[in-house]
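User: Can you predict the 3D structure for this chain?
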Amino acid sequence: MRFLCPTFPLSGPLLRKAASSWMLMLLLCAPLQGQNGTLQVEVNLCGANSNGSDVAVNTSDNSVWTIDSSSGKICVFSTSSNPPGLALSNMIDHPIGAAAAPLFQPQCSGLAYNESSNTFWILNSTSLELLEMDTSGATVSLPVPFVISGSASGLAYDSLSGTLWTRDTVNQQMVEIDPATGNILSTLEIPGSEFRYGSGLTYRSSTTGIGYLDFTYGTAFDAGIAEVRSLAIGTGGLECSGIDLGANVDNSLLGICYNASGSSLMAVTTTHLLQINATQPAIYPPADLVCLADGEGAVNLEWRNCGPGGGGLYTLLRITRNGAIVDTLPGSATSWADLSAPLGQTHQYQVQGIVGNIIETSSCSVIHGPGGLVNSVSFVGDRPRDLAYDDEMDDLYVTESYSGVIHVLSSDLSLKRIIDTGLPNLRGIGYNPILDVLLVSRAGSGLVTFVDPLTGSPLSSFPSNSTSIDAISYDSAADDWLLLDSASSQVSIRRMEALDGAEGNPLGIIIPPSTSGLLLGGGVSSFKDGSLLSGVENLGAITSASQFSGFGFPLNFDLPLSEMGNSPDLLSNAVTGFEIVGSTLVVAGQATNTLFQLLIVSDGPDFIRGDSDSSGSVNLADAIFTATWIYAGGTAPDCRDSCDANDDGQLDISDPIFTLLHLFTGTAAPPAPYPTSGPDPTFLDQIDC
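Assistant: Here is the predicted structure, written as C-alpha cells:
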C-alpha cells in the first residue's frame, strides 16, 4: 500500500498504456492533501489478472468492495482514516461466476450496496440482469432481467426510493430500474459534451433528503476522465458540486462510490483501487469555463455560475489575464470578451467567483494567434479521417473512417449534406477546383479514385503505388496531387501529376531533409503559394503542424496543436487530417470524433496594403509615414502589415519606394488587400496588425 505521493520509475509505454492508474495517481498528487481531487491511497486489486469494473462501500463496517469484470471475484478492503489506508481483508466468489470461453461471458460491470438489507446488487451487463447477494457471496434471490436499448455500466442503489440506477453510455442517460421486477422506471439525460468519457456512477443523498447521481466525466479536450459531476435526480439539473481529477487523466477510471463519511471518493481501475479526497469547497467556482479566440481579434470567455445566491449568483466576478486583474463583473455575468489581449501570445485567464472574503477560481488558457482555437464540433459520422475544401462553394469534404460516406460541411463546421461513394473504408480526400473533382483513397487499396463532388459517384482510378495513402491534398500552384504515404518506415508525401490526361504520373517523393530532424507524422494541406502544411511526429504523436516548401524543406511556420487539449499526447490517431480553410486550419480528431478549427494567422483587423497612416486611402503621405517610422523614429503604425506595401515580408526602404512608383509612374499596385480593406492573404510572413 502506498500513501499520498509515492515515487517510482515509469517508462513511456507504462505511463501511456500499461498502467494508466499510475498516471492517475501521479496527476492527482499535490502538496495540499486536503485539496479536492488529490489522491490519498492506492492499492492493487486482488487476483492474478485483475480486471476491476466497479466499487461499493459496506457502510455497516466501512469496508470497500470491488468487483472483477470477468474473474467472478470480489475484493474486500478494510479502511482506516488517520492516516487514510486500505488493506485487503478478504476475497470471495460471487454467484454470477467467472467469464467462460469462447465468448468470455458473463461480464459484471456494476456493484451497489443496500444498507437497509445489508446486501449487494451485481450488474451482469452481458445478459442485462441484476442479482442480489449477501455479504458472504450467497444468492439472495433469482436474477432480475431488464431491457434497455443501449449499454449498462455502473450500478448505484437509491436509498430514498429503493431503486437501482445504471448508466447507459450509448444513449448518454441514467436509467432507473425496479430491482423487484426489472421494470424501467425513469431515465435522466446526462448533460455535457456530445463526445465524452466515463462509465462510473454512484448515488448520494444530502442532509435535506435530496438524491444525486454522481458520474465520471471528460470531454474530447480532456481525452479521458477529468472530473466527477453531479446530477440532481428530482430535476435532472447539473449541480455545481464535483471533484476535479486534474488535467491529462486518461480513460482508466471506471467504477466510483463514496466512503461512509462522504469525504473520500473510492474509484477503481482495471488493476487498482484509489481513494481520492472529495472534500467540497465552501463555495463552488464558476463551472464549464470555455475560452475561444474568435478570429476577429477578441478572446471570448463563457461559464456557468455556481455561486450560493439565487440562480447561482456571486457577490461579484473578477477576471484576470496572466495574473493581472483586467475586469470586475456583476455576480450574474456568464460571459466576457477580451478586446485588448496582445496578439501572438498564450494567455492564462481566471474567472473568480467572490462571496465575502471567499474566492473560488476557474482557469483556462488560450492562444491568441496561430494555433488558437476558434471552433470545435462533434463529428456526426463515425470518426473523421481527412478533409478537402472547395472555397468557391464553401464545401468542406470530410471522410469517415469505416465507410464510403463523405460529409459536406460549411466553413463554420455545420453539416450541409452527405454523399455516399459506395466505396469501402475511405481514408484520404483532396479537391481539384480546375476539374471540379474529388480524389479519395481507401484502406488497403493501391488505387486512388476520382469522385463526383455532387453525387459521390466514382469516376475513374489510377495507381498510387502504395496501399497506405492516408491523406490527400491538391497543390494548385503546381497542379499536382500530394498523397501522404504511411506504408514505409518513414512517412512521406508522393507528388503526382494532376493534369487532365496525365493524372497519376509520379513526380517525386517529399521527405524533410535528415538534417532538419523533422519526421512527417500525418495529414497534409497545401497553401496557394505551393508550400504545404503537414503534421510533425513528436515521440509518436502529432503535436504540431509545420510548413514545408514544395520540395520538403522546412520553412519558418509551425502551428501548435495544444488547443486541441490532451488528445495529441495521450491518444493514438488523435490527428489524421488537415485542411486550410481561409485563415484557419481544420483538424480531423479521429480518436475523439471531433473537428477542431485553429487559427493559422494572428487574428486582427482588416487593412489596406500601403495605407500606413490608416487614412483609408493610399497616397504620398503613406510613403512618407513609412519612411519616417522606419528610419527616423516616427509614429508607429496602427497596423504594421499595411506598411509592407510590396508584401515581401520585410519592412524596409523598398516599401515607400514601391508606393511612390505605383502612385507616380503607374507600376504595379500593392498586392491584396488593396484598394479596399480586407484580411491578409499572405499571413505567414509573420507581419500582422
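Residues 50 and 271 are 6 Å apart (CA to CA). The domain at 287-368 is CATH 2.60.40.10 (Immunoglobulin-like).
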